[in-house]
Specification:
By secondary structure, this protein is an alpha/beta fold. Helices cover 36% and strands 15% of the residues.
């Protein structure tokens, strides 16, 4: 089935005859969330949200939490039978360091001392399948975490030890002054605006 997430008309056609939806929001803004949620309507929907969302506050403290909260609110207003999955850091985010770790070079990035709990995407998918196919999950908000909280420096060391190629991560080189998001080192290119968004997200606890 073909449809475009930001084109409600195309999405409506793609959802014809579909009773359940797994909704993944692909951008850093809520964009057409209201219109998309209206198309989904009263269907059963599992939303891949974020562990950054905080309930019961007027303003979200984290940029990622802000747009995910707005998507959640749009889905609720549309009358869907919703379930929200709120994972913390994705394990595959560490692939940004792959080239440097393989080469044994120092891994450079932003905010090496910031800590998070990483969760494997396969675990998120397993929860999503159960939420979509089993009863008892409507109206639930599931926070998904990994087994432990690690700083970025600790994550780099753990990966290096696991693959037998220890890669040093210098915390001082993973600290970036506020406002210098365009100078971040990433394996994959990002636009200046995306880099700024990543800076705000990375620097917010």
């Amino acid at each position: 089935m073909r449809g475009h997430q930001f084109d409600p008309a195309a999405l409506e056609s793609a959802l014809d005859g579909i009773g359940s939806v797994f909704l993944v929001w692909p951008s850093f803004t809520e964009g057409a969330a209201e219109a998309v949620a209206e198309v989904i309507g009263a269907r059963r929907v599992v939303v891949l949200s974020s562990g950054s969302v905080v309930d019961g506050v007027e303003e979200q403290p984290h940029p990622i939490g802000q747009f995910h909260a707005e998507v959640e609110e749009a889905v609720v207003r549309a009358g869907a039978e919703w379930t929200f999955l709120r994972p913390h850091g994705f394990a595959t985010n560490t692939l940004n360091w792959a080239a440097e770790i393989r080469s044994g070079d120092v891994v450079r990035g932003a905010y090496g001392r910031s800590a998070s709990t990483l969760v494997h995407e396969a675990d998120i998918a397993a929860v999503a399948v159960r939420a979509l196919t089993e009863d008892g999950h409507v109206g639930a908000k599931y926070e998904l975490t990994g087994p432990e909280v690690l700083t970025k420096v600790e994550q780099v060391h753990a990966i290096g030890e696991a693959i037998g190629t220890p890669a040093p991560a210098e915390a001082s080189r993973m600290e970036v002054p506020a406002g210098s998001g365009r100078d971040f080192h990433y394996v994959t290119p990002r636009s200046p605006s995306s880099a700024g968004g990543c800076h705000r997200c990375s620097s917010t606890p």
